[in-house]
Design goal:
The protein is α/β, with parallel strands linked by helices. It has two domains: 69 residues; 104 residues, no CATH class. It has a five-stranded parallel sheet with strand order 3-4-5-6-7. Strands 1-2 form a two-stranded antiparallel ribbon. Helix 4 packs parallel to helix 6 and helix 7 packs across helix 8. The longest helix is centred in the C-terminal third of the chain and has 17 residues.
């Protein structure tokens, strides 16, 4: 559930109200007990380190809390996030940090702490499929490339299929185990409706 809190600044467009970080955490807790959430991306603002810490304390043991804007694939910011215990996963964007070496450093740093890693596309992508290769090579577990609707997205998924074909029986589908906090709900689980 990508939330883009930095862009929304905790405002509800529909209701035109501002939510403080504590209220956001309460709202996410309610969502997580009402719906079978697996992850939240950018659950707090990009500069709201205390809010992220509150969110991780409340939900980090059962939901993947993915930091994108707060980390910007920057190893220095990821190290700070690890030290301050503000998330349990990071979105990795190769062209955001700039070099493959820095990207690998960021991925390994997160993985060494038991964090989830999500290799992601960016707006303005091309049909280059390198991030699919990077996802597999780094054992990242997740590739975020959008709906398979346009060539630049489809090519990345096609590359995953080619990799699987090449690996044959050595290829494995991680399923729920791809998550740092594997989902515990069943597909058929009834969930309550009506989040306020």
């Amino acid at each position: 559930m990508p939330l883009l809190s930095s862009e929304e600044t905790h405002h509800s467009r529909r209701e035109q109200r501002h939510l403080e970080p504590e209220e956001m955490v309460t709202y996410y807790e309610k969502l997580s007990t009402t719906y079978p959430l697996v992850l939240l991306e950018d659950g707090m603002g990009q500069d709201d380190w205390p809010g992220w810490k509150q969110l991780n304390a409340a939900l980090g043991d059962r939901i993947e809390l993915v930091g994108d804007d707060i980390f910007c694939t920057n190893p220095t910011l990821i190290a700070r996030g690890i030290d301050e215990n503000i998330a349990n996963a990071v979105l990795i964007k190769l062209n955001q940090i700039g070099t493959v070496t820095e990207t690998i450093t960021a991925v390994r740093m997160a993985q060494n702490q038991g964090w989830g890693t999500f290799v992601s596309h960016r707006s303005g992508e091309t049909v280059d499929s390198f991030i699919a290769d990077l996802t597999v090579a780094m054992d990242a577990g997740h590739l975020k490339s959008g709906a398979p609707a346009r060539g630049e997205r489809v090519e990345k998924y096609n590359q995953l299929l080619r990799i699987e074909e090449h690996l044959g029986d050595a290829a494995r589908y991680a399923g729920r185990q791809a998550y740092v906090r594997p989902p515990t709900f069943d597909r058929g689980q009834d969930v309550k409706r009506g989040v306020e």
